[in-house]
Amino acid sequence: MLGPGRRPGPELNLATGARRFVLPTAQDTHDLGVRLAALLRAGDLLVLSGPLGAGKTALVQGIGAGLGVQGRVASPTFVIARVHEPGRPDGLALVHVDAYRLGSLAEVDDLDLDVEAGNTVTAVEWGAGVAERLADAHLLIELARAADTDQRTALLRPHGGDWAQRLQQLG
To answer: Reduced to 3 states, what is the DSSP secondary structure of residue 11?
Structure first.
């Protein structure tokens, strides 16, 4: 039995390495992003999916906070992509992409995102089905929001590389 203010920990699927988190508030979604940032490395690709209001931008804002990037992380819906420079000399930059208005794989290619080059992490909202091929390995983050509540769930699915091992470190 959990004490007051305690939540169950994340679920781990040993066969796939996937992790599922229950996030009671938008702040919990942000905080998961902060914790995830500690696992990130140059060249990482994060592909986010989920309906409007599921918490994609809140999660990326947490990642930006955890990385210590410069500037306010906001949805890049109208500019398609934003680069947030590192806040310290040894830090990582965050490339934040919104693929919602992109209609094809060719339009993603037109952005000329070189995910694996430089000292950057790339997070693509609405990226499922269009962004996975930007890198050999990626982390798919599927977000959902319960009806009539702030509670969200995040399912983190590793694809290639050492993502499954890294996700085991995420408490």
So the answer is: strand
8 A C-beta contact, residue 119 and residue 90 = no
| Residues forming a β-bridge with 154 | 21, 143
- Structural domain that includes position 136: 17-168
For residue 165, give the H/E element and its range.
helix 163-168
Domain count, the chain: 1
Contacts of 72 (CB under 8 A, 6+ apart): none
- Structural domain contains residue 102: yes
Indicate the pTM of the whole model.
0.84
Q: What's 76's domain CATH number?
A: 3.40.50.300
d(CA 157, CA 154): 10
Exposure string of 40-65, with b = 16+ CB inside 10 Å and e = fewer, is: beebbbbbbbbeeebbbbbbbbbbbb
Q: Is residue 135 part of a domain?
A: yes
Q: What is the pLDDT of residues 76-129, one digit of tens each?
A: 665 567 777 888 889 999 988 887 666 555 555 555 555 556 788 999 988 787
